[in-house]
Amino acid sequence: MYIETSRPRLEGEKARLVSPVFSVAPKNPYGATNTAYCFSFYYHMYGQHIGERKPVTL
Length: 58
Description:
- The chain is largely without helices or strands.
- About 0% of the residues lie in helices and about 0% in strands.
- The protein has one domain.
- The mean pLDDT is about 75.
């Protein structure tokens, strides 16, 4: 995913990445219950006029 942040941007503008809910199967192929899931991502916020990142999960 990519969000363009070059000019002309205005102070206070926001970018949002929205995803549908992921349905996770309650059991793995061997019948055991899956109890741990992980979501990870990488980002960079380098530049003279970069604001802040505020991740939100619902």
